[in-house]
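To illustrate the input format used throughout this study, we show a single complete record. The first block contains the structure-token representation of the backbone; no residue identities are included at this stage. The design step must infer an amino acid for every position from geometry alone.
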């Protein structure tokens, strides 16, 4: 085995420690070492027999993020995980109660994903397929397509703004169009330096344009990537919807609210807030719903007191 000589003592110590470490015994390479130290963030059940290979180490979606992806789906939905890798996402979709079609072109990945699904006890909810997503797509039916394609390895971050054209094995536009042929409910997990302008343009590939929510994903305050949730305008729920610029409604609302607040003088704000409190329902004669409920409860309480007093009085 080739050895690398280094004159830096602290680096030498680290290399020696690594050679003697548990990590090196598990076949961890210098490239994947940092991911091994985070293994329990990737799979909380790592110690129960999870299997990984080099690409799996640097590509698997951290469990916390995969859970967030799965939370956007509902029980019994069919989710197509087009690039399942070692199963980080497929497992969480299955734990959520979805039926998962998990595809990977690499048979070794599918074998590891199957093993890992067994570790989590969800293998029976996942239909594993070895194959090329682009070839299988025309025959696939599902409620949601999840796309976490290869980003070209850990060097994706050497580029300042990562263009959709660099996604593998096809550019982001092609990937999106193929998924769109199956459903408009598409979830994409992309690099943290992705070109968000291009992402917004993807909505316009559909007519009417799809709604988009852009979610930044963090693990221990470290930005790992962006998740894009696309869905059709018609079926949009408030959580998923966004304006045409791609900003989420939540982001947009909070932006408007903070600029509105800074524009208002204290005086204006007081009158504005009192207007809001007085928001009326035209049939309520100027009383809001909370006030109406209070009056009704008051009347009921008073009636109870009267009945109670009459009862006690009679007994006496
Ligand atoms: P990273 O950038 O290699 O690690 O991957 P980190 O810790 O952000 O880098 P650092 O240098 O800032 O410390 C971050 C996460 O992105 C990984 O945990 C994977 O979830 C995801 N990821 C990384 N790559 C290279 C890929 C990829 O090719 N495909 C997919 N789907 N996800 C990837
Ligand atoms: N989300 C996964 C990681 C996916 S990494 C997880 O959490 O584990 C991307 C995967 O896409 C790799 O495993 C790679 O083998 C697979 N892949 C590449 N080209 C493919 C294709 N044409 N069809 C299906 N899978 C492909």
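Output of the design step:
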């Amino acid at each position: 085995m080739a050895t690398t000589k280094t004159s830096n003592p602290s680096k030498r110590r680290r290399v020696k420690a690594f050679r003697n470490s548990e990590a090196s015994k598990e076949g961890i390479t210098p490239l994947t070492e940092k991911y091994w130290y985070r293994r329990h963030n990737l799979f909380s059940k790592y110690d129960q027999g999870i299997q990984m290979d080099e690409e799996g180490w640097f590509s698997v979606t951290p469990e916390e993020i995969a859970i967030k992806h799965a939370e956007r789906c509902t029980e019994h939905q069919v989710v197509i995980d087009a690039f399942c890798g070692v199963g980080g996402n497929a497992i969480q979709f299955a734990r959520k109660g979805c039926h998962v079609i998990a595809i990977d072109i690499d048979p070794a990945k599918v074998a590891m994903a199957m093993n890992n699904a067994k570790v989590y006890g969800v293998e029976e909810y996942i239909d594993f397929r070895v194959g090329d997503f682009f070839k299988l797509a025309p025959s696939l039916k599902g409620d949601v397509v999840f796309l976490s394609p290869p980003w070209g390895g850990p060097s994706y971050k050497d580029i300042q703004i990562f263009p959709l054209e660099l996604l593998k094995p096809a550019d982001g536009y092609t990937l999106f169009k193929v998924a769109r042929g199956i459903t408009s409910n598409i979830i994409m997990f992309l690099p943290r330096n992705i070109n968000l302008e291009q992402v917004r343009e993807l909505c316009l590939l559909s007519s009417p344009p799809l709604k988009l929510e852009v979610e930044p994903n963090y693990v221990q305050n470290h930005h790992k990537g962006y998740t894009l949730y696309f869905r059709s305008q018609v079926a949009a729920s408030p959580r998923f919807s966004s304006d045409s610029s791609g900003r989420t409604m939540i982001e947009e609302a909070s932006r408007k609210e903070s600029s509105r607040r800074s524009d208002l003088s204290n005086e204006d704000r007081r009158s504005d807030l009192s207007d809001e409190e007085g928001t009326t329902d035209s049939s309520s004669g100027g009383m809001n719903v909370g006030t109406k409920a209070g009056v009704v409860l008051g009347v009921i309480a008073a009636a109870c007191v009267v009945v109670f007093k009459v009862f006690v009085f009679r007994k006496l």
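Structural context for interpreting the output: The pocket of S-adenosyl-L-homocysteine (ligand 2) is lined by residues 55, 59-61, 83-89, 103-106, 109, 132-134, 148-150, 169 (CB under 6 Å). The chain has two domains: 54-245, 257-315.
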